[in-house]
TrEMBL record:
GO terms for molecular function: cysteine-type peptidase activity. Belongs to the peptidase C40 family. The lineage of its organism: Bacteria, Bacillati, Bacillota, Bacilli, Bacillales. It comes from Alkalicoccus daliensis. The keyword Transcription regulation does not apply. This is Cell wall-associated hydrolase, NlpC family.
């Protein structure tokens, strides 16, 4: 009986979330861990004291990147630039704080990854609402429509093509979009605009006149130019 109980305990240990030293705090995360990160960055002069709201958005991303550049932890060429991973958290004295990201501490079955889940992509996308439109833009300082989509997926561990036409060619057609699918529009010849479907007949995209915003597929302009949905 004792051995049986030990086996159950060991099995349960395999299902718990990573410890904070293994965790990351990234774009789209929310919670006390983000608040603590923001406060610590502010105390070191890399974040505005007014940007302490527990939401990892574009301002927090810039603060993390500023700190990583100043300490040499990462650079624009680094794979984890803008992600507060073990090295960044440890450098800030947060690796043993006991505070973990609300999006990375949920109990998960061993072997199941949630880093590139549709919910994560949408959370990241929504956190970028209000970012300006910039032709060729691929960062929160400014996005074009495909740069925005590529960025949201990349922040959740999934590499996708850069241009709308490439995304269209790479995706698998679906009769109706599900949350996280891409919706395409013919605003010029062929697929020329795209967004991420978020449910409720709505999609989030970077429009040339609006920046990152949420629109309805029922809008006369978008319904008229709608080409279809694809899954990557």
């Amino acid at each position: 009986m004792k051995k049986f109980m030990m086996s159950i305990a060991l099995a349960g240990a395999l299902l718990v979330a990573p410890t904070v030293s293994e965790a990351t705090v990234k774009m789209g995360d929310r919670g006390s861990d983000v608040t603590e990160l923001q406060q610590t960055l502010a105390s070191k002069g890399h974040n505005s004291s007014s940007n302490v709201d527990g939401v990892f958005g574009p301002m927090t991303l810039n603060a993390v990147q500023s700190y990583q550049r100043s300490t040499g932890i990462s650079s624009p060429a680094g794979n984890f630039f803008g992600v507060a991973g073990p090295a960044t958290l440890g450098s800030l004295g947060l690796s043993s704080s006991g505070s973990t990201s609300s999006t990375s501490t949920s109990t998960a079955v061993a072997g199941t990854s949630t880093t590139s889940s549709n919910s994560g992509v949408i959370s990241t996308a929504k956190s970028l609402t209000g970012s300006p439109y910039v032709w060729g833009g691929t960062s929160p300082r400014g996005f074009d429509c495909s740069g925005f989509i590529q960025y949201a997926f990349a922040q959740n561990g999934k590499s996708i093509p850069r241009t709308v036409s490439q995304m269209w060619s790479a995706g698998s057609s679906v009769s109706s979009p599900s949350t996280g699918d891409l919706v395409f529009f013919e605003t010029r010849s062929g697929p020329s605009h795209a967004g991420i479907y978020i449910g409720g007949n709505q999609f989030i995209h970077s429009g040339s006149s609006t920046g990152v915003t949420i629109s309805s597929l029922s809008n006369p302009y978008w319904s008229k130019t709608y080409m279809g949905a694809k899954r990557l």
